[in-house]
Specification:
The protein is of the alpha/beta class. Helix content is 42%, strand content 16%. The structure holds nicotinamide-adenine-dinucleotide (NAD).
Amino acid sequence: MAAVVMDGRALAAKIKEEVRLRVERMEHKPGMAVVLVGDNPAALAYESGKQRDCQQCGIYYDTFRLPESTTQQELLEVIGVLNDREDIDGILLLVPLPGHLDQRAAVMAIRPDKDVDCVHPVNMGDLMLGVDSFQPCTPAGVIRLLDEYHIDPAGKRCVMVGRSNIVGKPQAVLLLKRNGTVTVCHTKTRDLAGECRQADILVSAAGRAGLITADMVKEGAVVIDVSINRDAQGRLRGDVDYAAAAEKAGYITPVPGGIGPVTRSILMENTLTAALRHGKK
Ligand code: NAD
């Protein structure tokens, strides 16, 4: 039987509408600032997406496009100003930064209560400790999509393919927090197919199109494809061989239209949360 297709666009629209309705009632609107160094086209496209999302939600938006030649001192000054601005509740620093800049020092300079992307070690540490703080948008989006379809990870075998700091590691922690039995796979995993075949919930964020074939999917499993790859024709694809896997899985996310839009909506929600924590009403 064909899998239920998990509709990330519909969930994202719902989350953004909830944010918009809450923001509408606020006298002092939440604000987000995006800091971008250099003119990487992918980062520019990403930045304009954030602007659109903020507009849709009624969140004040400011952008800082700094030249490639920006020094570390200049970057830290911009972050310092944004840390102090009361109209800004969330700061998003687009990475990677040009090679001459110290990315870790820049991230460390962001005030943790404005770190809506959850990249600061304080927020990552809180996540690890189970303390309520910001949750990184993509892994939190995966959990929200599972919730939306009433899929409870508790007691289930969850296999996470990928161990990056922005997706794999925090995803494993969030699945563990929901009482999943979690295995994390990576490039040194000996038997990736065997591990994946055990999964009741399989989350892939390897960034390798075609890595997860249908024979790696257990009958009836939940398959979440986080990756965004481009094929030879320039079309977006995930890691999963979607058409074949959808014949075996119980639930599956498409690419595009799966985790991507949910991730973006969680960023809006985190910005609203930051504003409420800053006492905005
Ligand atoms: P990354 O390159 O930092 O990490 C990839 C991970 O996958 C690594 O830990 C690596 O060990 C593992 N991996 C790679 N090839 C593998 C293989 N053949 N077998 C087993 N493990 C393998 O990437 P990332 O930043 O975590 O992003 C992963 C993917 O998710 C990318 O395609 C990215 O574009 C996408 N992404 C999507 C969203 C979203 O909103 N949907 C957000 C962030 C990242």
